[in-house]
Amino acid sequence: MSQQGYVAAPPYSQSQPGIGGFGPPNSSLHYGHYGDPNSSYSTPQPGVSKPTVPFGSPAPVGPPPPGAQQFSQSSFQNGPGTPGQQPHRLQSPPPPSNTGPSYPPYSHQSPPTFPNTAAASPPAQLADQLNSMQINNYGPGAAPSSGHPAPLQGARLPPPTQQQMVLPPGPRVPPPPTNSVNGLCAQPAVPPMARQGAIPGPVPPNPNLPQLPGQPPGPGYHPQQANYGPQMAGSQLSYPGAFPGAPAQLSGPPQKKLDPDSIPSPIQVIENDKAARGGQVYATNTRGQVPPLVTTDCVIQDQGHASPRYIRCTTYCFPATSDMAKQARIPLAAVIQPFASVPPNETPLYLVNHGEAGPIRCNRCKAYMCPFMQFIEGGRRYQCGFCNCINDVPSFFFQHLDHMGRRIDHYERPELSLGSYEYVATLDYCRDKKPPNPPAYIFMIDVSYRNIKSGLVKLICGELKTLLDKLPREEQEESSAIRVGFVTYNKVLHFFNVKSSLAQPQMMVVTDVSEVFVPLLDGFLVDFEESRSVVTNLLDQIPELFADTNESETILAPVIQAGMEALKAAERAGKLFIFHSALPTAEAPGKLKNRDDKKLLNTDKEKTLFQPQGSCYEALARDCVSSGCSVSLFLFPNQYVDVASVGLVTLCTGGTLYKYNNFQLEADSPQFLRDLRKDLGKQTGFDATMRVRTSTGFRATDFLGAVYMNNTTDVEMAAVDCDKAVTVEFKHDDKLNEDTGALIQCALLYTTHSGQRRIRIHNMGLNCSAQLADVYRACETDALINFFAKSAFKAILSQPLKTVRDILVSQTAHMLACYKKNCASPATLSQLILPETMKVLPVYMNCLLKSCVLGGRPEIPTDERAFQRQLLMAMGVADTQLFFYPLLLPLHSLDLQSDAVPAAIRCSEERLSEGGAFLLANGLSMFLWLGAGVCPELIQGLFNVPSFAHISAQATSLPDLDNPFSKKLKHILEQIQSQRPHTMKLIIVKQREQPEMLFRQFLVEDKDIYGGASYVDFLVCIHKEIGQLLS
Ligand SMILES: [Zn+2]
């Protein structure tokens, strides 16, 4: 940096020409369509079909002609107004069979209440979190109503894929329908009746486990006093050791150990679904249809309901009454991932533009036009599927109905026939009724002593030089519209002027961090293309500029505040990329002290470890959200940084938290740089507000995710990217109508990265039934676990962890007991009967209970628990599935001829073999486990060393070798990695050597050394609980 450019003038000696200099937004460039509906048709968005009629024109169309039949469908489709029509995507889908349910007759109902109560204070929200767990706790006497219809009766015959899992099969249970489709015939390898009592007592601690006292639980963890033990064992009331011998009702002669192959296998369930539905086209044309599992690859075709990539539900059939819901205690929830990535072979969302008229919405409930609206009176009016209100069809939108009562343009308009699409928003949907500016990214780098010395600052600056060329942009644009800005900091802040007209970047120092001020506006947020040379110059100079720093203390809250103020002043939404290392101890707002205290574990105060310190970061988060400022935090801690406090801003603003413990340049750069590249390039919606509307009888009551709630209905997200999911819980208001079903519409208002305001709509129709069996039959365990995990991780902010764990166990038992009592054929008490769709709920639930977040173990750093907790709160179903039940692949038997990833195996030590090599991944960590007897050829092929003894366990990547085995493995690693938001660092584990203990924690079917129950033990525990509930 040139000396003349170095304006080291404390504070603000410079006038601020920029304030007036930002001028009016350059609206003509980006917003030509506002006020000119037709102009937008000349620049179609990628993947957007052109409308076949100029429906953007708000000009009145004459009264509709009397007879719809005079316009044949073909003449309409070929009619005027379709210049340059692209091949229509909506060609010939079979008519949705259930999207146009019969609607109840118009009635003068009072409008549904959409409480818009005063903003709930943050403390009130914490209190609500408590309730979210307790609400499900319907109390002990949840006995079924006596008049309940017998299950499995009536017209709703189970489809062939539905069968109940019986353990062991009772003589009176009718044989399940033979089903060769999903291979479940193999499953009834259940033990005979006589073996019921065989369920063993507590499994002794793994005898093969090497005793490695004092060993750090793995890379990235602090060395800790190993103190395995009694705290945990004593704290978990419900399981391990709670079963000295078989439960009483499991009478019978003593038996040998329960065969793990006879209990439901998650791998079998996953493989069966892949075999039945993998590689196929899944059309969303039926209300209440249960989609393929999240682990099954298929092509999704939107035919009236949102793709399961966008919405997955805990059950696709809601109980008709709240009494039924209370009885079954199945959470009614939808996991909504509004920006989910879609693979290239699926169609991106269509964009609908009604010009100045804006989106068509129900007058009463404000739901958007969608396939659930029923057109009547020859097409002049429509009845809202959500609130039943009758609305007039705007004249520009009028169309005749065919003999089926369907508009003849049904398949030409995304908003009439698709589950998901986008609307161009009008100025009414913009802040201050002004079109938004494109967003900005501000890079804020901690340049304190340690980051300079470790080479981290140099690494970041070097990477940004090339990365800024890859900012997200519209397909038809040459460069990104996103502005960029740069700040460095330690105890003070340094802003940089990188205006394109400057020969050298200029630095302005802000020393007063108690009330941060943005010292420059003009030249701070720039177009990278225009300012390339100045920015490159700056990035070259930053590491040099601070090379001699001695400053070791840092601030953080003022940094976030400064970034937010800069965005605010520039009237832009955007994202802060903050690269930070240590607990912010410098004297400034948001100063934190080390309050980590292991003595709090397993006490009622443990929850405080997950709560933020003071109110500063919470207030900051709220301000960030209200100004559309998202914060992604890249942490490089050597010790406690109080993730619970600093990460809160990230969580509330829809940013992403990354953490690289004890960052080593050599070993950890690839992981960090890949994360940074991915984060920067992610498809993101900015300054977003989401609203979930429902049909009458139920409503959304809780929202779990990287969101902020100012009131009870508007979900605010400073940004939302492709990996973020909001889990929405629903509750009954009233009885649901079985004919019309339960309809959900998620509307997300946001700003694109080019600065266009849009509304993304996802519609989903679910069934309703008065038969409990229908509800169970339509459940999805992966979504259930997502819900349970998020609600538990929210509840630990306000409740003792033990209470939260007990609620999870009790709710699992209740759900299964209700099924057994109401839906299964009469069976003896000693049978464990699981609904087909919940066969693996116990094993997944046990994984959740054993997770380091819910289990207070002194070996796991508090920051790690807070980190995992925050990550999980934002996860979608695919990520929680992998997180709780890791992928374990045998590598020694790779088929080198095939491209396929080998079939996974169950996460249990007994599935490993001394002569094998196995890969394990859970989305955050990845291990390559090598058996002591693994063959030398394999070692040579992977590591290019002659024997097991030569392998270095320090390596975090595999060498690039020119042999088929190495190439194939690299390919598999890449495939697993590419679908996950966080980069997993590879850890090499040699059997019976040090990091093996960490690896074993991921063998989630086994009992763990900290006292977490094995799958078998947990199943026994749940069995016993069910028995008690039903006795
Ligand atoms: Zn309505």
Strand tally, please? 32
Query: What is the CA-CA span between the terminal residues?
Result: 79 Å
Give the helix/strand class. alpha/beta
Portion in helices:
10-25%
**Gyration radius, to the nearest Å?**
29 Å
Based on the model shown, name its key terms.
25 helices, binds zinc ion, disordered N terminus, single chain
Give the SSE map.
Elements (H helix, E strand, L loop, with lengths): L5 E2 L9 H5 L5 H4 L42 H5 L44 H14 L29 E3 L62 H6 L30 H12 L3 E3 L15 E3 L9 E3 L3 E3 L2 H7 L4 E4 L14 E2 L21 E3 L4 E3 L6 E3 L21 H4 L2 E5 L15 E7 L2 H5 L2 H12 L15 E7 L3 E5 L8 E5 L15 E2 L4 H14 L11 H13 L4 E7 L35 H11 L2 E7 L7 H10 L4 E3 L5 H17 L2 E11 L3 E7 L3 E2 L5 E7 L4 E7 L9 E10 L5 E13 L2 H6 L3 H15 L5 H22 L9 E3 L6 H10 L11 H12 L3 H8 L2 E4 L26 E5 L3 E6 L5 H8 L20 H15 L6 E6 L5 H5 L14 H16 L1
Helix pairs in contact: 4-17, 10-11, 10-15, 12-13, 13-14, 14-20, 17-19, 17-20, 17-21, 18-19, 18-25, 19-25, 22-23
The structure holds zinc ion (ZN).
Kindly summarize this structure in a few lines:
By secondary structure, the protein is α/β, with parallel strands linked by helices.
Overview of this protein structure:
- With 1031 residues, the chain is an alpha/beta fold.
- Helix content is 25%, strand content 16%.
- The chain has 25 helices and 32 strands.
- The strands form seven sheets. Strands 1, 13, 14, 15, 16, 17, 18, 19 and 20 form a nine-stranded mixed sheet that branches.
- α13 (616-626) links the parallel β18 (574-580) and β19.
- The longest helix is centred in the C-terminal third of the chain and has 22 residues, at 801-822.
- The N and C termini lie far apart (79 Å).
- The structure holds zinc ion.
- The site of zinc ion has 8 residues, from loops.
